[in-house]
Amino acid sequence: MAWEKGYRKVLLQLDSTTAINILSSHDHTEHRYRNLVLQFQGLIQRNWEVRISHIYREGNKVADFLANTGHSVSIGYHVFESSDSGLTYWILYDVLGISQTRLI
């Protein structure tokens, strides 16, 4: 979606260091999601700047909200507008940098 909208500098923040390591690796001969990983890498290697970094789930409430919402929708491609229920609140939460204590 970012590519199609013309963005050429993208910061991809993931809350999974495992996913970051898999995407950064070049050896996927034995990985069970090899085809999916290669598709992601193909997208990342287009003529644009994609920086991948780790972020704790608590630091990205919008992503957390969307991930939880994803459990209640059908499989497929979905676009959520910021006016969707609850999303505007979490966007503001992230913009203001409101943090939450991480429970371990």
From TrEMBL:
Matches recorded under InterPro entries: RNase_H-like, RNase_H-like_dom_plant, RNaseH-like_sf, RNaseH_domain, RNaseH_sf
Domain RNase H type-1 residues, every copy: 2-69
Taxonomy, superkingdom: Eukaryota
GO molecular function: nucleic acid binding; RNA-DNA hybrid ribonuclease activity
Gene3D superfamilies given in the database record: Ribonuclease H-like superfamily/Ribonuclease H (3.30.420.10)
Matching Pfam families: RVT_3
Protein name in the entry: RNase H type-1 domain-containing protein
Organism from which the protein derives: Linum tenue
